[in-house]
Every structure is written in C-alpha cells, then in structure tokens.
Automatic annotation (TrEMBL):
This protein's name: 3-hydroxyisobutyryl-CoA hydrolase
Lineage: Bacteria, Bacillati, Actinomycetota, Actinomycetes, Kitasatosporales
InterPro entries: ClpP/crotonase-like_dom_sf, ECH_dom, HIBYL-CoA-H
Catalytic activity of the protein: 3-hydroxy-2-methylpropanoyl-CoA + H2O = 3-hydroxy-2-methylpropanoate + CoA + H(+)
Matching Pfam families: ECH_2
Enzyme class (EC, first level): hydrolase
Domain Enoyl-CoA hydratase/isomerase: 16-349
Length: 360
C-alpha cells in the first residue's frame, strides 16, 4: 500500500464501509492523493453489495479534517497553481458525489472540521457533531472565498448567519453547526465508538433496500443522540440579521461598528482583518448562491472563484501569514475595502475558459 492510500484507511465493518482520514499530525488535512483515494473507494463501494452504508471519521482526537493541505497549495500557487487547480477540480467533484451518494453516508464531525473537512462531511446524508466539534469556513482569513460547497451551506443558513460566518471566518460550536444547517445530530464523543459498532451491526442485518438501511441508520443515530449544547448564535440573530443584510461590505462594517453591540464590533474587526478582496468576493458569491438551483451550480461558481484566486496575491500571502511564517500580519493587496472595485469582484465570478467543472 503506498503512502497516499495509507492516508485514507478503508475497510468493511459489519455492513458499513469505514473511511478514516489518517493524517492526525496534520489534523487530517486533505492531500490530492486523499481526495483521489476517497473518490475511488466511494465509486467501488457504490456497486458493492456488502457495503450498506458509509461512515467517515478522522484519525486521532483533534478533528475530522482541518481542510485542504494549504501549505502544498501555497507552494504550488507560487509555481503557477496547476496542481491546485487539479486538486480543486477533483475535490469539488468528490463533494458533489458525497451529496448524491446512493447509500447512506454518515460523517462524524468530531473535533476540528473546517474548509475541505466540511466538504467531505456536511454534504452527507447524516452529519454528527460532538461537544468537541469546531466547524468553520475560515477561507477569507487566508485570502480566498468559502468553497467545497460551503458557500451553499452558508447561503441557506437562517437569516444572515451564513454571511456573518463567511465574512468574519468565525467558528461554530456544535449547537451553532446544527442551527446553521451544517449538522443534523449531537452525539457525545464518549458514545461515538458504541455508535459506530451499532451502525455496523444494524446495517449488516437490515433488509436489502436503501430505504431500509437508511431507516436502520436513522434508528441507531437517534438512540445515541442527545440534546445539543445551546447555539450561541441564536441570541445574536437580531444584530447579525440587521447588520449583514446591507448591500455592501462597507455598509455591513459600518452597521456593525455603530450597532452598540460589543460582539458586533468584534465581528467588524474580524471582517476588516481578512482579505478585502476575499471578503467582497464572498459577499457576492453568497448572494448569488442563494439563487443558484443546486449544489453543482454552486460548486461550478466556487471553482471559478478559486481558480481566479490562484492568480492573485492574497491567497499566497494569507497562507504565509497564518501558516508558514505565522506572524498573523498579512499584507493584503489591495489593502482596504475601498480599493476593491466591482470590476475586481466580477473577475472572480466571471466564466473562464478551461475553468469550468461542468457539474451543473
């Protein structure tokens, strides 16, 4: 078994096909090889009668997946970005497959689940969080826009919660992930091993129809699920909905700063610290994602945006500041919201020859 395949462990457990992301020292961040292995395994398992359902987990106790391997993306982008374009293409196609998978797909979003980790989990049929879950689409912090279908999830979160999360790069605890539509069930982490064992047993003995297996999965999850911790964002809906409903990022920031709410001021500071280009592109992308008809259409839009970002300055600089040098002092270009024009944003959203997924 080569190193790439070893980074994804795949095995049969009762009636369940178990997928384990296996880079715990890197918070199970996704390499291109892992994406390829996941896709190949899921394609094989779709036609394998032994596999009644699929369960995705992450190795170690720190998280399911912290996202894509952004160190590799940083280095590749400096060399032209061809490898990262191919990674995005395969990753987004994997996200679409997961959303349409013909067998129940259960994702255990225990611990850190961010960016690409959301893409391989939050489009599944059954999405489980624990008290250790931290879920986020933090892309604007590193100079790009939410992707892996995350902009669709954010766009369809209640009110303007998704706009707040996308622009500020804020994280969600388990209660917030449930509120915002990123998860379905809360199961305490201590109960996960027993849950996985029960899923293997119940799917192995369930009648052969997809509906019967889905019912068996639902019954097991319901038996282990518990009430989730409160959603912190629920009480903040009034100022979030009022401020983020504005038409421009500048007006959103102005409303946040003048709301008189301390949390709103902190959100404004977070938005202003992120890439001005990425923040403005994200707002436009989220507003458009609300009207797009499908996940596939949103992934097509995200692919255009991500490919355009590879040609700019901010992604390389954002990863340098947050991950490579860790000085937390990115030098964005342009450096202010006022300097980012409507034409700049339009360039990210415009169709680009050769940069289409063709999913929609």
């Amino acid at each position: 078994m080569n190193a790439e395949v070893a980074e994804v462990q795949a095995f049969l457990d009762g009636g369940v096909g178990r997928l384990v992301l296996n880079r715990p020292r890197a918070l199970n961040s996704l390499t291109h090889g892992m994406v390829t292995a996941l896709r190949a395994t899921l394609d094989d398992w779709a036609a394998d009668d032994r596999i009644r359902a699929v369960v995705l987990t992450g190795a170690g106790e720190r998280g399911l997946c912290a996202g894509g391997d952004i160190r590799a993306m940083h280095d590749d982008a400096k060399a032209g970005g061809a490898g990262t374009r191919a990674f995005f293409r395969d990753e987004y196609r994997l996200n679409a497959l997961i959303a349409r998978y013909p067998k129940p797909y259960v994702a255990v979003m225990d611990g850190i689940t961010m960016g690409g980790g959301v893409g391989v989990s939050a489009h599944g049929a059954v999405r489980i969080v624990t008290e250790r879950s931290t879920v986020a689409m933090p892309e604007t912090r590193i100079g790009i826009a939410p992707d892996v279908g995350g902009s669709r999830l954010l766009a369809h979160s209640p009110g303007e919660l998704g706009t707040h999360l996308g622009l500020s790069a804020a994280s969600m605890g388990p209660g917030d992930a449930l509120l915002c539509g990123f998860a379905d069930h809360f199961v305490p982490s201590r109960r996960i091993p027993d849950l996985l064992e029960a899923l293997g047993r119940s799917t192995a003995t369930a009648p052969g129809t997809t509906t019967a297996v889905a019912s068996a999965v639902a019954a097991v999850v319901a038996a282990y699920a518990e009430p989730a911790p409160p959603a912190a964002l629920a009480a903040q809906r009034p100022w979030i909905d009022a401020c983020y409903a504005a038409d421009t990022v500048e007006e959103i920031v102005d409303r946040l700063l003048n709301s008189g709410v301390p949390e709103a001021k902190e959100a404004a500071e977070a938005v202003l610290a992120n890439s001005p280009t990425a923040v403005k592109t994200t707002l436009a992308a989220l507003r458009r994602a609300r009207t797009l008809p499908s996940l596939e259409a949103v992934l097509d839009q995200e692919y255009r945006i991500s490919c355009a970002a590879l040609e700019g300055h901010d992604m390389v600089e954002g990863v340098r500041a947050q991950v490579i040098d860790k000085d937390r002092n990115p030098r964005w270009k342009p450096g202010t919201l006022a300097e980012v024009t409507e034409a700049d944003v339009a360039r990210f959203l415009a169709p680009r020859e050769g940069d289409e997924l063709g999913l929609a």
